[in-house]
Amino acid sequence: MKNNMSGFYKLPSVDRLLRSEPFIALIESFGRKATVSAVRSVLKDIRKELSTSKTTTFDFKENKILSLVSDYLHSANKPTLKPVLNLTGTVLHTNLGRSPIASEAIEAMKEVASGTTNLEFDLERGERSDRDDHIEDLICSLTGAEAATVVNNNAAAVMLVLNTLARKKEVPVSRGELVEIGGSFRIPDIMSRSDCRLIEVGTTNRTHLSDFEKAIGPKTGLIMAVHTSNYVIEGFTSAASELDLATLAHKYELPLVVDLGSGTLVDLEVYGLPHERTPQESIKDGADLVTFSGDKLLGGPQAGLIVGRSDLIKRLKKNPLKRALRCDKITIACLAATLRLYNDPDRLMKRLPSLRILTRSSDEIKEMADRTAAELRKKLGNSFKIKVLPTRSQIGSGALPIENLDSYALVISPIVKKGQGAVLKQLSERLRSLPVPVIGRIMNDSYWLDLRCLENEEELVSQMSLLNLK
Ligand SMILES: *Cc1c(COP(=O)(O)O)cnc(C)c1O
């Protein structure tokens, strides 16, 4: 006890530490305030350790304090949001930030981020303008819509449309389309928060046009169709087509609103992918407004695009909610640059990362898997067996839920079967704690890394010696 107390008294003071050379360097990097509070916190921990520990040899020399303070400052200043390698096999993974952004769009964001912009300023007339002007013509020419606007995400788009066109009114929706999209987007909840009354129509597996017609009354505000993004109903099913719904809606002078969810601006079949409904098709079939996401198949930033009749878009823009849901200059710059890539369909597949990744051939992925497997075998030691196996990637974010893409995975299995669950868990933890965390999944007693989304194999290979699994 006596020794501990004497150790306690010999701790250098905050002031003395801060006057010494290495601490001055820390102040240069992290600022005085952060450094002072780091020193205080470290000294406090040391005092606590000294007062409770039985050892009398606790090392509190300046060097030791310095390294503790330096670690403290470095870890406090590390961003928590950082790049990871998405090897889950789900390309547009909501938890992993959905779509990567094209380099043209990254440049556009940089350009507007660092200074002031003409976000809502008409340079020709020298007067105030609308921020949507930067994207409206682009969206209209790509979708064939009369008008367009954009908000924070598709959930916001649906909310704005419902609240503007059907506040305190009834909205018939098919029971087969009352979807929950991961992360708490539920059509019934969005409906009530938008101040609308949901009228459930038909049954889970079959909804006919006549069911909709029976639901229409004096209080109906609009008819809504929702893309059942993340599931399909198979077997004895029937749904009213958008074409028929539009005819019905217009007979009663109601708008037909379609929540497309993902929505893609190009016919994915052209790129060898399964067909996904486009806003162009919905508009052509008579939808009055269509909403879809910016960061799903479109391959841009998080945003909700709303396209359709210009009188309805005008009403959306007048709703005070639009002000609350509007996008910032960075999103608008990113979205506009992404949309401009669509004007050159021949090069789209190369320039738009999401499309490039989705269309990668399984042969190319297999070649990459063979190369990385060879590297990994060298670095992972003797406790694991590494195979290259065919797998199926998913598009993700609700797009084409049952369509899969042929791909290849590195499949890592513990050689010793006893206790392999714990070994796999440890492997996944180590992969997650790499400088660029690697996210795969455990399946069939192995750890699977689907390489579809790995564009730079060096990024994976170069980190493997840090795994320390030997
Ligand atoms: C994804 C999705 C949404 C939500 O879109 P966010 O851009 O994530 O807000 C809404 N409706 C459908 C049908 C969807 O697929």
| Shape label | globular
How much helix is in the residues?
40-55%
Find the count of extended strands (DSSP E, 2+ residues). Answer: 17
- CATH fold category name of the largest domain: Aspartate Aminotransferase, domain 2
Strand content: 15-25%
Radius of gyration: 28 Å
Structural class: alpha/beta
Mean pLDDT: 91
| Beginning-to-end CA distance, first to last residue | 42 Å
Plain-language structure description:
43% of the residues lie in helices and 18% in strands. It is of the alpha/beta class and 470 residues long. It has three domains: 2-76, no CATH class; 85-93 and 358-466, Alpha-Beta Complex (Aspartate Aminotransferase, domain 1), CATH 3.90.1150.110; 103-348, Aspartate Aminotransferase, domain 2, CATH 3.40.640.10. The strands form six sheets. The protein has a five-stranded mixed β-sheet, with helices on both faces. A four-stranded antiparallel β-sheet has the order 13-14-17-16. A hairpin with a 2-residue loop joins β13 and β14. α3 (21-30) crosses α4. The longest helix has 21 residues, at 32-52. The radius of gyration is 28 Å and the shape is globular. Mean pLDDT is 91; it is low at 1-7. The structure holds pyridoxal-5'-phosphate (PLP).
Blueprint of the fold:
Blueprint (H helix, E strand, L loop, with lengths): L1 H8 L4 H6 L1 H10 L1 H21 L9 H15 L8 E2 L16 H11 L7 E2 L4 E2 L4 H11 L3 E5 L2 H12 L4 E5 L5 E2 L3 E2 H7 L3 E5 L7 H7 L7 E4 L15 H10 L4 E6 L17 H6 L4 E5 L10 E5 L1 H9 L1 H6 L3 H13 L3 H7 L1 H6 L3 H18 L4 E13 L2 E16 L5 H13 L5 E2 L1 E3 L2 E5 L6 H5 L9
Bound molecules: pyridoxal-5'-phosphate.
